[in-house]
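A reminder from the course coordinator: this example appears on the midterm review sheet, so study it carefully.

Given structure:
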């Protein structure tokens, strides 16, 4: 009988969770306009076409950050918002997801290898950040 099991009281220690603060990235509502429309919207119908567009957008996004830390989620949110706007006459039947996140990770690793971006350790936040490399 579960009603006889004593419940643990919430203590101040238990309710204090260490949440990770989101990295500073441009607000989605302000930045999705900087992502240009593809020359041919039919490109969005194929996975390869979407991936090519996302790679182009990622490069634009990284340039726009102007040495601010990169976080994939704000970029994916802005890209999804922009894709929805571009296809409002013919709504998308899919959303950006895990496969797109994995592809972005691959592009970031490639950019790290090429020296286009860098990883730095932020002591005050105790975290590793990804930033565009200074020219």
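Designed residues:
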């Amino acid at each position: 009988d579960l009603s006889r099991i004593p419940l643990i009281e919430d203590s101040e220690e238990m309710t204090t969770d260490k949440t990770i603060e989101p990295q500073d990235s441009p607000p989605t509502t302000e930045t999705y306009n900087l992502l240009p429309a593809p020359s041919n919207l039919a490109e969005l119908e194929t996975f390869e076409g979407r991936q090519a567009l996302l790679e182009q957008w990622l490069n634009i996004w990284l340039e726009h950050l102007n040495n601010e830390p990169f976080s994939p989620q704000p970029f994916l949110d802005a890209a999804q918002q922009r894709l929805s706007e571009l296809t409002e006459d013919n709504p998308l039947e899919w959303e950006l997801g895990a496969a797109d996140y994995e592809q972005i990770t691959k592009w970031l690793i490639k950019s790290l290898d090429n020296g286009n971006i860098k990883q730095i350790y932020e002591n005050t936040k105790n975290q590793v950040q990804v930033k565009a490399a200074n020219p």
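The two ends are 67 Å apart (CA to CA). The chain has a mean pLDDT of 76.
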